[in-house]
Write a structure and sequence with these properties.
Layout (H helix, E strand, L loop, with lengths): L1 H16 L11 H7 L26 H22 L5 H14 L7 E6 L7 E3 L6 E7 L10 E5 L3 E6 L1 H5 L22 E5 L2 H5 L14 E5 H9 L3 H9 L9 H10 L5 H8 L15 H5 L1 H4 L2 H6 L1 H29 L3 H10 L9 H37 L8
Helix pairs in contact: 1-16, 3-15, 4-14, 7-14, 10-14
Length: 404
């Protein structure tokens, strides 16, 4: 605690000793009049004029301008996101158990709809017409990066999708085409697709690459929603794993309090954060463990997926239930913490970016991964250095001076 006071004392005295009154130059008269139409131009206004074209404000000031624009962009999508909290998950679970028990998952290419009113009479469709979907895809890692199967949950129906390779045992394509992607609906109709790490699923959807006329389908990611509220930095995740201690060990009280407030990013981890006492039941594959079931798409060949098709479809569908339960807990908290419509607009638009598919994408991706790793290393090094300085000041009793 002494080192913290020393840091504060040093910071305050430093600022006072270096205090010097200066005139701060403000924006030029043209921009000032644009931003503050009812405020006279100050004498500090810059003499350097800006000649660019400024868009007209749609409100009285810049603050309201961004609020109005964001509300226009998100208005209908916000209504859909609120409606998504009113899905009847008890009914969805009941129907899913019925489908699983009777092995009603249809082994056919493309989309099949299983209405809650009559799940034993499924129908073949081109794509789900629902305006709200909880969505999850699976791929066979040993096979490649194209989707193998997908499950979607609508307001009154389950949907299952199967690839041609899974059903007809065709060869894996040397050059993937749009025919290998999953169609999820009309790009001209406003639709919300909710998933956990849904960017992974979106990359395998047909409509994500149909940009010529503008796509009105938006994706909402429950993982991205949870991270700013309950997520951890990389070094915190390592700390989270280290402190699996019992309550009798030193420092366990603050550790347990902290761990109750944060969460790892996986679907099961975030679900457990909201429902810590609810057991997650998933269908079994014969006598295999749940971990073996979870890793089936990672470790096993596509032949094994075909052999276990019914249980794996149900397993994937159960993830949609978990995602929906997470969303039920996330949405009210998200709206409470981030009430401005521009935040929601940013979430939806960042989840709707153009997906490049030419050779430059790999170069761009690898360069960004490299830069990100370098910045993480630098940030970690500075945190460690600052911690060592704090520890040293605590030991010596000297005032601390830290520069960043």
């Amino acid at each position: 605690m002494r080192s913290l006071h020393a840091f504060r004392r040093f910071s305050v005295t430093s600022r006072r000793s270096n205090f010097e009154r200066k005139t701060i130059e403000t924006v030029c008269p043209r921009i000032h009049k644009y931003l503050f139409p009812h405020v006279s131009t100050p004498t500090t206004s810059s003499a350097t004029e800006y000649s660019g074209v400024l868009p007209p404000l749609v409100a009285e000031n810049v603050v309201d301008h961004f609020r109005v624009l964001a509300e226009r962009q998100t208005g209908n999508y916000r209504k859909l996101l609120e409606e998504a909290c009113r899905f009847n998950l008890a009914k969805a679970t009941e129907v899913l158990e019925y489908i699983d028990k009777n092995e009603f998952w249809r082994y056919s290419t493309g989309w099949t709809r299983y209405p809650f009113s009559n799940p034993s009479n499924p129908e073949t469709i081109e794509s789900p017409s629902d305006s709200i979907l909880f969505f999850d895809i699976e791929l066979v890692v040993r096979d490649g990066t194209l989707p193998t199967l997908a499950i979607a949950l609508g307001k009154d129906a389950w949907y299952g999708w199967c690839s041609d390779r899974l059903i007809n045992e065709t060869d894996y394509p040397e050059v993937p085409t749009q025919n290998h992607l999953i169609p999820i609906g009309d790009i001209g109709t406003e639709k919300i697709v909710i998933g956990h790490n849904v960017g992974f699923d979106r990359a395998r959807c047909l409509e994500a690459y149909q940009r010529q006329n503008g796509c009105k389908i938006r994706f909402m990611d429950t993982m991205s929603m949870s991270i700013p509220m309950f997520g951890m930095a990389d070094h915190q995740q390592a700390l989270f794993g280290m402190y699996d201690t019992d309550n009798n060990e030193p420092n366990s009280e603050w550790v347990n309090t902290w761990k109750d407030r944060v969460s790892k990013n996986s679907l099961l981890a975030v679900h457990n954060h909201f429902y810590p006492y609810k057991e997650v039941e998933k269908p079994k594959l014969d006598d295999e463990s749940k971990d073996k079931l979870r890793s089936a798409f990672v470790k096993e060949p596509i032949e094994a997926i075909r052999a276990k098709f019914q249980k794996l479809m149900t397993y994937c569908a159960t993830d949609n239930i978990l995602c929906a339960e997470i969303y039920y807990g996330l949405w009210p908290e998200f709206v409470k913490r981030f009430p401005h419509p521009a935040t929601l607009s940013g979430m939806l638009n960042m989840g709707n970016v153009y997906l490049p598919i030419n050779s430059y994408w790999k170069i761009f991706y690898e360069k960004n991964v490299q830069i990100c790793a370098e910045k993480k290393t630098l940030a970690t090094r500075r945190i460690v250095e600052a911690a060592r300085m704090l520890a040293g000041a605590e030991t010596s009793g000297k005032d601390l001076q830290i520069e960043f």
